[in-house]
Amino acid sequence: MKKGKLINSFQYAFFGLWMCVRDERNMRIHIGAAVVVCGMGLCYDISRQEWSVLLLTIGAVMSLEAVNTAVEKVVDLTTTEHHPLAKYAKDVAAGAVLLFAFIAVVIGILIFSPYVQQSF
Ligand SMILES: Nc1ncnc2c1ncn2[C@@H]1O[C@H](COP(=O)(O)OP(=O)(O)OP(=O)(O)O)[C@@H](O)[C@H]1O
Questions:
Q1: Which of 93, 91, 118, 110 is closest to 50 using CA atoms?
Q2: Which of 15, 46, 55, 71 could form a disulfide with 93 if both were Cys (CB 3.0 to 4.6 A apart)?
């Protein structure tokens, strides 16, 4: 692959993430939650393994939100009409984010509950 093209690909990808943050309220909520849990991670001095799980979880939630946004945009591009398949695609993509967001909350509780209990 040519060097220029590789740089362009990174630029497009970063611009995609920026548009997601700029336009999607849910993405900004995920970022807020990530800042809070990373702050807690620093406060409680969690282990390397716990940081790995935490960062993987944060990355997965945000990546899923980005894919959900992409699905929404493609559906909107495909039809402006009310269509059951459009609803199906959007709701399934949203469900994927919701499912992993629940898992992320459970992971957060598993990681931080021993530290929070110790501090009382
Ligand atoms: N073209 C369509 N045909 C049928 N149902 C649709 C269509 N567009 C959206 N919907 C449905 O309307 C509801 C709201 O969709 P919308 O696109 O506004 O996304 P949203 O859930 O509000 O997400 P976001 O806040 O990320 O935009 C969802 O249940 C979605 O499946």
A1: 110
A2: 71
Q: Which two tokens stand for residue 12?
A: 């497009």
CA 65, CA 80: separation in Å to the nearest integer?
22
- ipTM of the complex model: 0.90
Give the CATH fold of the 3-118 domain: Helix Hairpins (1.10.287)
Q: Is 80 helix (H, G, I), strand (E, B) or coil?
A: coil
Ligand 1 atom with least separation from CA of 79: 1
Whole-number pLDDT of residue 82 = 97
Domains of the chain, residue spans:
3-118
What is the pTM for the complete model shown? 0.91
The residue annotated as part of the active site, out of 24, 50, 65, 81, is 65
Contact (CB, 8 A) for 53 and 111: yes
Residue closest by Cα to atom 13 of ligand 1: 87
Q: Is residue 72 annotated as a catalytic residue, yes or no?
A: no
